[in-house]
Amino acid sequence: MNYKSFFPMPGINAGMLTLEDLERITDLARRYEVPMVKITGAQRLYFQGLSPEKLAEVKEELQLLDSLPHTRNRVHYVQACPGKNWCSSATSETERMEKAINKMELDGPLPYKVKVGISGCTRCCCESWMRDIGLTAEKKGWRLSFGGNAAGNPRIGDLIAKGLSDDEAIELVRKTLNYYLKTAEFKTRSARYVERYGIDDLKKAVLGE
Ligand code: SF4
Questions:
Q1: Which ligand 1 atom lies nearest to the CA of residue 91?
Q2: Rounded to the nearest whole angstrom, what is the distance from the C-alpha of residue 123 to the centroid of ligand 1?
Q3: SS3 189
Q4: For the segment 75-129, what is each residue's pLDDT rounded down to a tens digit?
Q5: Which residue of 119, 129, 136 sits with most ligand 1 atoms within 8 Å of its CB, as the best mutation to test the pocket?
Q6: Which of 16, 78, 87 to mutate to test the pocket of ligand 1 (most atoms within 8 A of CB)?
Q7: Residues linked to residue 8 through DSSP beta bridges, in sequence order
Q8: What is the dihedral angle through the alpha carbons of 171, 131, 127, 149, rounded to the nearest 10 degrees?
């Protein structure tokens, strides 16, 4: 029987995997007879088709039963391209940004999912304009956009600021998300929020204009 279960592997951030990671994942998949492993568009790795019993066993082996409570005080996921460490077109390093935003603790629970796209140059391989938070490296620093969405009602995000250093960009992401979580209604994605309220008040608040 082919079960329609899927299970995202923890700790696989932005799809960066060492050979040791791959060996560990292969070992786990073999032992639990995972029928199919999927790399998702969000750069995550899913074990698919596990029976409920095997799913419980994998979670227990990874100590996930109680150890990872879901928190809405952090972003849903961060998608990042290889950046300056690995790509010849890049103008900025992306790994530091990805790690900083992934572990960023906000002032409260977010209204809804927040997806982040980080691209190390203007070729924009991580489709930053189409993410709730988009960071794109330009020659003079990071460009930050907010309110993008790629789903049924797609939207290109609004520019918040450009020419940002790494630290300025990280801090501005924090301010933008904190403002959003304090002013948006529950279950309002950033795209719908900007359509409803515009971007000017948010920009004034986070840029101190
Ligand atoms: S966005 Fe630019 S830096 Fe990132 S992978 Fe694409 S070409 Fe390379």
A1: 3
A2: 6
A3: coil
A4: 988 999 999 999 999 999 999 999 999 999 999 999 999 999 999 999 999 999 9
A5: 119
A6: 87
A7: 46
A8: -160
196 lines ligand 1 (CB under 6 A): no
Q: How far is the CA of 93 from the centre of ligand 1 (A)?
A: 10
Which residues are CB-neighbours of 111 under 8 A, at least 6 positions away?
Answer: 180, 181, 184, 185, 186, 187, 188, 189, 193
Give the residues across from 146 on adjacent strands: 133, 158
Contact status, residue 185 vs residue 162, Cβ threshold 8 Å: no
Does residue 2 surpass a pLDDT of 70?
no
Q: What percentage of the chain exceeds 70 in pLDDT?
A: 94
Q: What average pLDDT does the structure give for the chain?
A: 91
pTM of the predicted structure, to 2 decimals: 0.90
**Cα 99-105-110 angle, rounded to 5 deg:** 110
Walk me through the domains of the chain, giving residue ranges and CATH numbers.
Answer: 6-61 (no CATH), 77-207 (3.30.413.10)
The pair of structure tokens assigned to 115 is 């997806």
Asked whether 157 lines ligand 1 (CB < 6 A), one says: no
